[in-house]
């Protein structure tokens, strides 16, 4: 009986699954698609970048340069080094402007943030009607100059409806914009009224991100509304509140139009805030060099305060995780 021996045939080499250059068409396709998307994104961003460069970046660089010069528009800038910054330390008007601005900022931030938080919580807990939100935001949609003029007439010492009501109740008329004690608080109240709705809607948007299950669990455990507010709402709103505080603080330091329309820095420089002082130096005294130096100092101070606020409030962290 013959035995047939099968000789194993050598395995044929498997076809190279990925030959040299194989797969590169797909990678090239993705690379081309990514480049195309990048160019499309740049095309959409370009107008904003152009506006930022023209209206913010270049004026900032130009202002920093002018702050080291003596410049009055009609003649070429003359480099003076740190003379304008040294002048700040002996400028009593600047010191008075800083004090007035800080007082305004403290009143505005305290009132606006507290009232906006309360209003946002009420909207969130009681009603989320779009109509109510539109009414709340309405004052913010009115030009600040118009708001200032309307309140200026309403608070007028002689013919203002507010003083008419005070006298009708048996009180004495108050010179809201004409008294050194009342001027800054009055301006802060006017601006608080205008920006309250906008700030409340920012906080309201943050409240929408808090899961309802958290409140239901706390209510099941017997927590009151006040306890839920302090132990749930406020901690979980920390990133939003940090943003609101930074925006409110920066906007408060930049107050100008309300002062310009109502008091023009008076009475007795009681409302000559830093922004109005910069305007006075640059466009009334034509001292653009010193005005730029004050502006640069304000820019640095705002940057430092904003950074410290974001750091202390841990704005980049959330307790929802």
What can you see in these coordinates?
The protein has 321 residues and is mainly α. It has a domain of 200 residues: MetI-like fold, CATH 1.10.3720.10. The chain is built from 13 helices and two strands. The protein has a two-stranded antiparallel sheet. Helix 10 runs antiparallel to helix 13. The longest helix has 43 residues. It is flat. It starts with 23 loop residues before the first helix and ends in a 9-residue tail after the last helix.
List keywords for this structure.
321 residues, 13 helices, two-stranded antiparallel sheet, mainly alpha, MetI-like fold
Topology:
Layout: H1 24-66, E1 69-70, E2 78-79, H2 83-88, H3 92-126, H4 130-141, H5 144-154, H6 161-168, H7 183-207, H8 212-220, H9 225-236, H10 238-253, H11 257-262, H12 274-284, H13 288-312
Antiparallel strand pairs: 1-2
Helix pairs in contact: 1-13, 3-7, 3-10, 4-7, 5-7, 7-10, 10-13, 12-13
The oligomeric state is: single chain
What's the CATH first level of the domain at 103-284 and 295-312? Answer: Mainly Alpha
The percentage helix is 55-70%
The H/E string reads HEEHHHHHHHHHHHH
Global morphology? flat
Strand order of the largest sheet: 1-2
Structural class: mainly alpha
Major sheet, described briefly? 2 strands, antiparallel
What do the pLDDT scores average to?
A: 88
CATH superfamily of the domain at 103-284 and 295-312: MetI-like
As residue ranges, the low-confidence spans are 1-7, 14-22
Quick structural gist:
By secondary structure, this protein is mainly α.
